[in-house]
Write a structure and sequence with these properties.
This protein has ten helices and 26 strands. It is an alpha/beta fold and about 400 residues long. The relative contact order is 0.12. The structure holds flavin-adenine dinucleotide. Flavin-adenine dinucleotide (FAD) binds next to helix 1, helix 8 and strand 22.
């Protein structure tokens, strides 16, 4: 059996490594369009952008790992087409046959439209190593950066810029930052954190257009005001990289639609990671996180080999901003009650819907995160009153 994996990122790399770990010894080819071995993206907007992490530490495994394990790693080679009928992928003119194919193509950052200046020089996305390497020179003290989008990526970039002494403005068109991904309480905490570091956060104000001839020099906002900027970072979300799959005729629904085993509408094609949507608690979702990329890809590897096991995601996420580590376990969608626990500098927000415990956001509180995660795994709902009381030893609530 020949296995081909398209997309040499977190999910693609986890998939091929798992295939070997499970004892599969057939041909495996991992194809990526970036010119470097698979790497982790989270540090791109954190330690790497801050200049506190070398590039080699980004790589998930040394390049030699792949050859040592007889995995053919093709870098800098975009797959241009899939012919599902003949089970062939094309890299330009080159054709490669497969028995089983996996699509781990990730996501593409949404761009600011060219009509409002999105193509001007000095406007950056935060997705690829090359994005960071090109924008790094802009991060010098005193310069003015406008960050469009108050999600995690935008806020992490804001934290790095503030720490490097830049003048930082974050623009969020929605009524508040982190609107899509965190509760108002967690957003309030993050807003205060940024404000205390001198970042200006403007919420409920959209961008009308960027100003500049060839390079961006300013921005006009929806409230009619203008501001001068030296450069711009767009952190306005991502779209699943699904064009290849769509052209191959696979079923699409919020990305590449897969079943509970990670199989697409074509029985010989699988998908995992940011590009794949699956049913979770009755809704078709995509999870844009490292943990999901790893776990789903490993499930696909096992299922390619016939395990027949359903993927049961355990959503968790983290974000580092300044000296705060935010860790999230579960998804708080639909919560109707929030319990706040504060103990010294540790803080956590616990989400409930009726009698069920849904998720926890832990800020500099690894214990709350660990215990909350275990509760979710074991289906335990903690007593809110005990939870709120900082005297309660969290572990006792696991019983
Ligand atoms: C700056 C940043 C910070 C993040 N921080 C966190 C965090 O703190 N915590 C967290 O959990 N998650 C974080 N994430 C999200 C996390 O990195 C992603 O969820 C994860 O990388 C998804 O893995 P993936 O393999 O699905 O996609 P990717 O890692 O994006 O890999 C997909 C690869 O496929 C390639 N590809 C696409 N099309 C083709 C083609 N036709 N041919 C060949 N190759 C192709 C892409 O170029 C890419 O290299 C962050 C992401 C970014 C960008």
């Amino acid at each position: 059996m020949d296995v081909v994996v398209i997309g040499a990122g977190q999910a693609g790399s986890s998939l091929v490594v798992k295939l070997r770990a499970l004892g599969y010894d057939g041909d495996v080819t991992l194809i990526g369009d970036e010119p470097v071995p698979p790497y982790q993206r989270p540090p791109l907007s954190k330690a790497y952008l801050l200049g506190k992490m070398g590039v080699e530490r980004l790589f998930l495994r040394p390049e030699a790992y792949y050859s040592d394990h007889k995995i053919t790693l093709r870098m800098g080679t975009p797959v241009t087409r899939i012919d599902a009928a003949t089970k062939t992928v094309f890299l330009g003119d080159e054709a490669l046959a497969y028995d089983q194919l996996a699509l781990t193509t990730g996501a593409e950052p949404r761009q600011l439209p060219a009509a409002i200046g999105g193509q001007l020089e000095g406007v950056y996305a935060v997705r690829r190593l090359s994005d960071i390497d090109t924008m790094a020179a802009e991060f010098t003290e005193g310069r003015r950066v406008l960050i469009v989008g108050g999600g995690y990526i935008g806020l992490e970039a804001a934290a790095v810029a503030a720490q490097k002494g830049l003048q930082v403005t974050v623009l969020e068109a929605a009524p508040r930052i982190l609107g899509r991904v965190a509760s108002p309480e967690t957003a309030d905490f993050m807003r205060d954190l940024h404000t205390s570091h001198g970042v200006t956060i403007r919420e409920g104000v959209g961008l009308t257009r960027l100003i500049g001839d060839s390079r961006v020099t300013g921005a006009e906002l929806a409230d009619g005001s203008t501001m001068q900027v030296d450069f711009v970072i767009a952190g306005i979300g991502i779209n699943p990289a699904a064009a290849l799959a769509e052209a191959a005729g696979l079923t699409m629904e919020n990305g590449i639609s897969v079943d509970d085993q990670g199989r697409t509408s074509d029985p010989a094609i699988w998908s995992a990671g940011d590009c794949a949507s699956f049913v979770y608690k009755g809704a078709r979702i995509r999870l844009e996180s490292v943990q999901n990329a790893i776990d789903q890809a490993e499930a696909v590897a096992a299922n390619m080999l016939g395990a027949g096991k359903a993927y049961a995601p355990m959503p968790w996420f983290w974000s580092d901003q300044y000296d705060v580590k935010l860790q999230i376990a579960g998804l708080n969608t639909g919560y109707d009650r929030i319990v706040t626990r504060v103990s010294g500098t540790a803080r956590s927000h616990w989400y409930f819907k009726g009698d069920s415990f849904l998720a926890v956001d832990a800020m500099n509180d690894p214990r709350a995160y660990m215990v909350g995660k275990r509760m979710l795994e074991q289906g335990i709902t903690p007593d809110p009153t005990a939870l709120e009381n900082p005297e309660t030893e969290l572990k006792t609530l696991l019983k």
